[in-house]
Design goal:
The chain contains eleven helices and five strands, in the order H-H-H-H-E-E-E-H-H-E-H-H-E-H-H-H. The protein has 383 residues and is mainly α. The protein has two domains: 4-92 and 323-382; 129-297, no CATH class. A hairpin with a 5-residue loop joins strand 2 and strand 3 (186-190). Helix 4 runs parallel beside helix 9 (276-297) and helix 10 packs antiparallel against helix 11.
Length: 383
């Protein structure tokens, strides 16, 4: 578009040249007025000269019209190319924004699918509480059952690489599960909860049998708490707390209701008892912590990208403003050209209205065609 402005200046120069030619023609006509009584041969020569000048002026005006039409076509082509470029950049920006939106919605759907799966697992686990006693009768089956429930909860909520089963610690011990947190220290989960004492307490018939079963329960759980604290709480390597997984909501509730001293001892040893529901909640908290850590790592990159987007937007606004300014200047130039052409047309009309005295056999100058009025029509047709 910027290259078309010099072409417009050339077109204006051509119009000015045409105006000069018309003024020259008017001067010749005015000089011919006092010589109306001249002999016929002299008048014929003057009329021939006027006709020649008229033909030359007509040819110049036609050439000026063609040149102006060509410059206007070139200007329109340049403007269309610039508009196509701006439209292309806008389409690319909208396409990128749409892709980001689709990716965000897809991730949201994946998160909702994970939540639905966890809710489904919780419902299935609740429906199988009635068969827990039969499973807990076998010690090996009980261990596999607790391990399986814990692994299912962890695998459903955390991505691969965020946890490890049977992870080896620095002291050679291998906990049932290790969940890796952003600081690099794993959170240890133990699923080997001693349920034989709970089963004996529920099966006790008399008061003495219940006391013995309660004493056994305190001894077994206390020993298991000490084992977890000694094996899995390593300063500087693991987290400051460890989780003891209780694979039954009813057993977890019974421990909190009747054995508060064991729960307090576990807290003092930095071992937290968790039921399936609480473990799921803890895993969700860990997942959110990991997500926040990833977001903090990408914060600088996001800020940089946002800054670049803002810079591109400001540059686009400046270019559109410049394009609008050039459009306004071009429109103003075209308006001035039309005004000049209209003035030329009016002056030509006044020249046509002048009466020339003619002799017999001499051509009537007033009957000549009004060619200057073609300027405005040609310019309008070129638009």
């Amino acid at each position: 578009m910027f290259d078309s402005l010099p072409h417009l200046a050339g077109a204006v120069a051509i119009i000015v040249a045409g105006l000069c030619a018309l003024v020259t023609l008017a001067v010749v006509l005015l000089r011919a007025l006092p010589q109306r009584a001249a002999p016929a041969p002299v008048a014929d020569d003057q009329m021939a000269e006027i006709a020649r000048l008229q033909a030359e002026t007509t040819l110049r005006i036609e050439a000026m019209r063609d040149l102006l039409a060509g410059r206007q076509s070139e200007l329109a082509r340049s403007v269309n190319e610039r508009l196509d470029s701006v439209t292309h950049h806008l389409n690319q920006s909208m396409h990128t924004t749409r892709e980001h939106t689709v990716d965000g919605l897809q991730k949201l759907n994946e998160r909702l699918a994970i939540s639905d799966s966890a809710q489904k697992n919780l419902t299935e686990l609740t429906s199988h509480v009635s068969t827990l006693g039969a499973v807990l009768g076998n010690k090996q089956a009980r261990g596999a059952f607790g391990q399986g429930r814990m692994e299912a909860i962890v695998e459903d909520a955390l991505p691969k690489g965020a946890f490890a089963f049977q992870h080896t610690l620095g002291n050679g011990k291998r906990p049932d599960c290790a969940v890796f947190l952003p600081d690099g220290r794993p959170l240890v989960i133990d699923a080997k909860f001693p349920l034989e004492a709970i089963t004996a307490l529920r099966d006790a018939k008399g008061e003495e049998a219940r006391k013995q079963a309660a004493a056994r329960l305190r001894q077994d759980i206390s020993r298991h708490i000490n084992d977890i604290a000694e094996k899995y709480l390593l300063p500087g390597e693991t987290q400051d707390i460890a989780l003891m997984f209780v694979p039954s909501e009813s057993v977890f509730a019974e421990l909190h209701d009747g054995f508060d001293d064991l729960v307090q001892k576990a807290y003092r040893a930095r071992v937290v008892l968790v039921s399936p529901a609480l473990l799921m909640l803890a895993i969700q908290v860990v997942q959110q912590i990991q997500k926040d850590a990833r977001m903090r790592e990408a914060a600088d990159k996001v800020r940089g990208e946002v800054g670049l987007m803002g810079k591109d937007l400001r540059l686009l606004q400046e270019r559109v403003a410049k394009l609008q300014q050039h459009f306004g200047q071009a429109n103003e130039d075209m308006r001035q050209i039309l005004i000049s052409a209209e003035k030329i047309d009016k002056r030509a009309s006044r020249i046509e209205e002048l009466e020339f005295g003619t002799e017999e056999g001499a051509p009537d100058v007033a009957a000549a065609p009004a060619f200057p009025s073609r300027i405005a029509r040609n310019i309008e047709a070129a638009e």
